[in-house]
Amino acid sequence: MIISTSSLCKHYGRVDVVKDLSLEVPEGSAFALVGTNGAGKTTTMRMLLNVIQPDSGTALVLGKDSRQLQAADFRQIGYVSESQVLPERLTIAQYFDYLRALYPGWDRGLEKFLRHNLDLPPDRALSKLSHGMRMKTVLVAGLAFRPKLLVLDEPLSGMDTLTRDEVVEGLLELASETTILISSHELAEIEYFTSHIAFMDKGRLHFQGEIDDLRQRFREVHVTLSAQKQLPDDYPQSWLFPQISGHTLQFVESSFIDDEFLLQQLAMYFGAVRINAEPMTLREISNVLIRHNRKPRQEAA
Fold it and tell me: Using CA atoms, how far apart are residues 50 and 114, in angstroms rounded to an integer?
């Protein structure tokens, strides 16, 4: 694992911002850390990069305790944040001239390719850049030295659709050779290039795993019952938010195998039924997981 945390915690006063976080980011993955604002994503990333230190627990980054990361380690780690500070007096070209001297592995050909593709004018002053142009600039700065790990904290926030697409295309250029950890609530924009995902809410991690596995496991199920029924008390734990109205049962299946198995399971409880099990988007799955982990079973029912 390129990142591995165990029981990582951070609190400010009486507020637990990150609670018992155990995260595993495989090398070579494009790993999305998602959740609502205030979920603890940014605090987690700052602990991983030793910007702040955890109150308890451990974090290994590139095989080293995050609290022991040195300058040589950061030459293998790119970092992009929506709140990143730039030297406003420089132009884009001057900024990259400055950065090249700091990174022995800087790839001028890749820098030129990305600057051209992202349409960054070299003579434009950093102080004159729009939010989208600033993010494209720091993205190139984070990619051009070909880091082993690229950490992106809400890089798509506040961007228009075209700029977001351009930034994602830039990420795809290196997705095959750099491990990417990206935090975002813009699920629709990142889901097609990420391979793994983790959901955070109120400082806690509720799920992590491969996106393909997650898509396979979750279905929105609509059931037509042959007669008006009551929901049994022993319904499967994998049925999330089940509701019966008349002859219709609705729920989210979180351990979907196939239609045949689901039909047999439902027949055992309700007799003859008809079902429709539809795949769900990552945004829908995220919302279900967050709601499920906020409510006890009896309230969800």
Answer: 28
Rg (CA), the chain: 23
Residue where the block lists tokens 């509720």: 206
**In whole numbers, what is the pLDDT of the chain averaged over residues?**
87
* Alpha-carbon gap, residue 162 to 78, rounded angstroms: 24
Which architecture does CATH list for 3-214?
3-Layer(aba) Sandwich (3.40)
Q: How many CB atoms lie within 10 A of CB 212?
A: 10
Contacts of 78 (CB under 8 A, 6+ apart): 141, 142, 143, 145, 147, 149, 150, 151, 178
Q: What is the pLDDT of residues 181-217, one digit of tens each?
A: 998 776 766 777 788 999 888 888 988 989 999 889 9
Burial of 301 from C-beta contacts in 10 A (0-12 / 13-18 / 19+) = middle
In this prediction the pTM is: 0.81
